[in-house]
Amino acid sequence: ECNLFLGYAVQACREMERITDNLLAIRYDQDVSPSCMLEFNLDTALYDILRRVHTRDHPLIIDICDDIDVRGDSQQIRQVVCNLLSNAFKYTPSNSQVTVHVWKDARHAHVCVEDQGPGIPRDWIPHLFQRLSRLEQGARPVRGVGLGLYICRRFIENMGGRIWVESAEDEGS
Length: 173
Known about the structure:
- The chain is an alpha+beta fold.
- It has 4 helices and 5 strands, in the order H-E-H-E-E-H-E-E-H.
- It has helices spanning 2-31, 42-52, 74-91, 148-158, and strands spanning 38-41, 60-64, 69-72, 98-104, 109-115.
- The chain is globular and about 50 Å long.
């Protein structure tokens, strides 16, 4: 019983940390401070995140190309990936896999978080990256306040990048 309580406490602390990070990010959005753009190794940063992530009983498939050097704000990239993974784990049924693909073409680095969740209704897709936008699906309640994807969009656009979702109902995102 003590271990169960400890597990709940750890989970609550992780959620509180994520909420605090999101609230701080909103504060920065008000005065839109520039990103701290530096060269860093994207694959190394992502492996560091993925080693620490709590998968909530989802198999995590990792497909990351090596030696992807990028220019950006590594802390903001970390927050974006954590928010995307958090959404994938929240909306995907237990024991369904979540995949992280990372590659670089001639001009851009790409990070794709793919899940096997219920998918997103087409009419909801334009609203996903708006502030306080939350998609309620099914009878299972999903925790959150609708800031994660909004923050992702602000951070990525602040660095000159682009973020989007591809999804179909009953096929994941």
